[in-house]
Amino acid sequence: MFVAGFPAGAWGTNCYLVAPAAGEECVIVDPGHEAASGVEELIREHRLKPVAVLLTHGHIDHVASVVPVCGAQGVPAWIHPRDRYMLADPEKALGRSLGQQLMGSITVGEPDDVRELTDGGVLELAGLHLTVDHAPGHTEGSVTFRTPASRDIPPVLFSGDLLFAGSIGRTDLPGGDSAAIMRSLARVCLPLDDATVVLSGHGSQTTIGRERATNPYLQQAGGAQGAPAFPRRGM
Question: Across residues 88-99, what is the average pLDDT?
Answer without folding.
Answer: 64
